[in-house]
Amino acid sequence: MKKIPPNIHFTQNVNQQLESCLAFFKPDKIAVLVDENSLIHCLPKLISIKAMPLIQINSGEKNKNIETCNIIWQQLTALKFTRKSLLINLGGGIVGDMGGFVAATFKRGIRFINIPTTLLSQVDASIGGKLGINFNELKNHIGVFKDPDAIIICDEFLNTLPHRQLKSGFAEIIKHGLIYDLDYWKDIQMNLFSEIKDWQSFIKKSVFVKADIVEKDPYESALRKILNFGHTLGHSVESWYLETEKDLLHGEAIAAGMIMEAKLALELGLIEKKYFEQAVNYIDQVFDRITIFPSFDKIKSLLIQDKKNHDSTIMFSLINGPGSCLFDIEVSDDQIAGSINFYLNSKSHP
User: Fold this and answer.
1) What pLDDT is recorded for position 2?
2) Residues 6+ apart with CB under 8 A from 133
3) Mind listing the pLDDT tens digit for each residue in 12-45?
4) Inter-helix orientation angle 182-189/199-216, to 10°
5) Residue ranges of domains in the chain, CATH in brackets
6) Is the pTM of this model over 0.90?
7) Active-site residue set
């Protein structure tokens, strides 16, 4: 890939870019989807859409479900939206995922624009056309593939984020370097998370990585599966947290998943111990280990529902060297249990 896909726009003037997109699409009606956070912190920056009809939802993975979709569909219906109407999704990954899913299914599809406002959504969730919702506490169990008509990325929104949310997004940046781009991984290691100021360069590099992978495999039949590194075990832990009152962010779960799955790669002889320690040490510099953990039996029951599985065989995407990753790797229950035990009972830094 020599350039960013044409539907992705990097800008420091989000109002100007949005007005340009709306002038091009010429929708008959427009509404803006927000949560309570983007309503307060992000909407005031968008002068051109503050007067447009708003649809507000509650933030959090627990609200990324069919019940919330029903609320949005009802409001779009009440606004008399047609197939020429357009929905603007202003917020993080949940707003983009769910708003896109709603738009892709409303009257068999209306246009939508994503304006991602979190690091996680700017580097990952808004790129690649995966849209979906959780179902029975299973992550992204229902969904479709549909690219936004436009994605407008402005790193100014990151100034509105709590430190923990910014860190959550950084997990996907680490993943992109580990699985696909050795030079990017080297750049990442040269930076302490707490000292990073120039987020735009990281965002652009991660968008290049993900967009390049998606271009080669849009529907996740092969190569795109490598983007699931850290997500097989990470999603199982995150799904378990959805069943509880405990709080866990996506990036925190994926950081845990990457450590466990790097351990699987080491045990299978896919990576050398030096690279394994390098990856785990860096992740541990950024993220605390999760201490409240589901049982192995619970994790196994959630892994069985993973979308990458073949029949009843659980498949992993595992790194096999710096900047490289394999997919459709079969792993035994004992190896999975061993990787979990390693995560819970080792720590690479004080």
Assistant:
1) 52
2) 64, 65, 66, 68, 69, 97, 98, 101, 140, 141, 142, 143
3) 999 999 999 999 999 999 999 999 999 999 999 9
4) 160
5) 8-160 (3.40.50.1970), 165-345 (1.20.1090.10)
6) yes
7) 108, 130, 172, 210, 220, 224, 228, 231, 235, 250
